[in-house]
Amino acid sequence: MNGDIVLVALIVIGLIGRSPIITTAACVLLIVKLVHLERYLPSIERRGLEFGLLFLTLAVLVPFASGKVQAKDFLAMFTSWTGWVALFGGAIATYLNGKGLEMLKVDPQLIVGLVIGSIVGIVLLRGVPVGPLMAAGITAFILKILQLFTEK
């Protein structure tokens, strides 16, 4: 029952914050619980991130499939400073994702803070949730910086 109350609270927060993603996700999970399909929750938890990243990647790759991005765009990427910064940003993001995954394996209870922080970011900062790994990666980076300052 406690989970139901949390889901209803998330629906309300999503509605107040005009966040259809949070509202829809909480509604779907509440429906799964109310129609007694809880046995699928572990599968949703295990595969949901993969499916979410799949659809996110599909959306990002549509310009390649539709022909909006062409070979000349690749050349422009390697010959402009913004292209090199984008390459660097992508490499750093994937590195941070890896560090976030390592941190979550060691300290899995941090997911509670990451989820609540993501909800705050969605509702108050109008952010877009792209997954807990980036949030975990940034958290791991911040914790490492804090450790450097507090150990001296």
Largest sheet: none
Unreliable segments of 5+ consecutive residues? none
Overall geometry: globular
Overall SS class: mainly alpha
Q: What is the H-and-E element order?
A: HHHHHHH
- Number of discrete helical segments: 7
Mean pLDDT: 87
The helical percent reads over 70%
Q: What is the beta-strand fraction?
A: under 5%
Any idea what the radius of gyration is? 19 Å
Number of beta strands: 0
Distance between the termini: 47 Å
Explain how this protein is built.
It comes from Cohnella lubricantis. Belongs to the UPF0756 family. Helices cover 82% and strands 0% of the residues. By secondary structure, it is mostly helical. Helix 5 (81-106) packs across helix 7.
Features:
globular, 152 residues, 82% helix, mainly alpha
Q: How would the blueprint of this fold be written?
A:
Blueprint: H1 2-16, H2 20-34, H3 41-66, H4 71-78, H5 81-106, H6 110-125, H7 132-150
Helix pairs in contact: 1-2, 5-7, 6-7
How is this structure best summarized?
This protein has 152 residues and is mainly alpha-helical.
